[in-house]
Amino acid sequence: MSIFSYISGVGGLALSAQERVLFEERPPWGAILFARNIETPEQVAGLVADIRQVLGRADAPVLIDQEGGRVQRLRPPHWPAYPPAKLFADIYRNDARSGLRAAWTGGRLIGEDLHALGINVDCLPVADIGFAQTHAVIGDRAYGDNVEQVVELAAAAADGLMQAGVLPVLKHIPGHGRATADSHLELPVVRASHEELAETDFAAFAGLHHLPMAMTAHIVYADIDAEYPATTSAKMIGEVIRGEIGYDGLLMSDDLSMKALKGPFDERTAQALEAGCDVVLHCNGDIEEMRMVACGACVLGGEAGARARRALDAANRIACDTSALREAFAALTGYGEVT
């Protein structure tokens, strides 16, 4: 059975008849869940299992954005609240060891929550460096304002996830921190020099190049490619992400339905894949857009298929005392207990 090079959102709490047909005819590599897909643990676990049954693959990736702070799809009362990355950065500045322990434990506990539902990919960590001009869409999602701190905290969170058996997605490569606009709403243009970017934004991602998956930024880096955002720029992907940064894991686009991109969805899909993305991501659950993305996608094979297989092999679940970790995390951060 062929697998196609896209990851799809779904519209509601259960798969619709139209979604089932699409997933059977042009199966995506995986699916992603949002708040509209979340009700109770039993419902989420059932939806995840149903997605995998329709796709015919027990290991099909099911993704979610569960960072903490503003970006967490699973929330109380059924799941704990987690802090934004800024809290780990604040702890780290006072005591680096405690900050790293908190970030690792947060990743591990989020991973435990997801593993219990069958969700095997989390769109975490955010490795975008915070600057004075960083748009609020990143804001407190950043682990700090210097490369070493961001790399260490992001790596700790990713390691916690993987030890829970959940795969991390590094975002937003090669760096969203200098953007002064929200790519959900418009196309940001970063005018920093290539040299400046290499020393800061790109360096953070280079320090995390070993992670199994990464998500592109819908941002124009004018000093390198003034025409195309990274997601659809062969130069940015080939020369910067794959070359300079050295990233050789599975590369997915950010959400194709964001307003930073223009044009029909089959064309957006083809442009991202032709530029060098291995798979594209479409999130909003609009069935007509989903069909166009599926039509623009190609069969997942060759180097992209090999990266996809390697990514799914990267998690290594290790048993732990979750109750003790929750107590330790609450003592460090004040978060992590179900209320």
Q: How would you characterize this protein structure?
A:
The protein has 339 residues and is an alpha/beta fold. The protein has a domain of 200 residues: TIM Barrel (Alpha-Beta Barrel). The protein contains 12 helices and 12 strands. The strands form 3 sheets. It has an 8-stranded parallel beta barrel with strand order 1-2-3-6-7-9-11-12, surrounded by 5 helices. The protein has a two-stranded antiparallel ribbon with strand order 4-5. A two-stranded parallel sheet has the order 8-10. Strand 11, helix 9 and strand 12 form a beta-alpha-beta unit. Helix 4 crosses helix 12. It is globular and about 50 Å long. It starts with a strand and ends in a 6-residue tail after the last helix.
Write the layout of secondary structure elements.
Layout (H helix, E strand, L loop, with lengths): L3 E6 L7 H9 L2 E6 L7 H15 L6 E3 L1 E3 L2 E2 L12 H10 L1 H22 L3 E2 L24 H17 L3 E7 L15 E2 L3 H6 L1 H6 L6 E4 L3 E2 L12 H11 L5 E6 L9 H11 L3 E4 L4 H10 L5 H11 L9 H12 L6
Parallel strand pairs: 1-2, 1-12, 2-3, 3-6, 6-7, 7-9, 8-10, 9-11, 11-12
Antiparallel strand pairs: 4-5
Q: Rough shape?
A: globular
* Name of the top-level CATH class of the domain at 81-261 and 315-333: Alpha Beta
Question: How far apart are the termini?
Answer: 44 Å
Q: Give the name of the CATH superfamily of the domain at 81-261 and 315-333.
A: Glycoside hydrolase, family 3, N-terminal domain
As a whole number of angstroms, the C-alpha radius of gyration is 19 Å
CATH architecture of the domain at 81-261 and 315-333: Alpha-Beta Barrel
Question: How do the SSEs run, as a string of H and E?
Answer: EHEHEEEHHEHEEHHEEHEHEHHH
| Count, helices | 12
Report on the biggest sheet.
8 strands, parallel, barrel
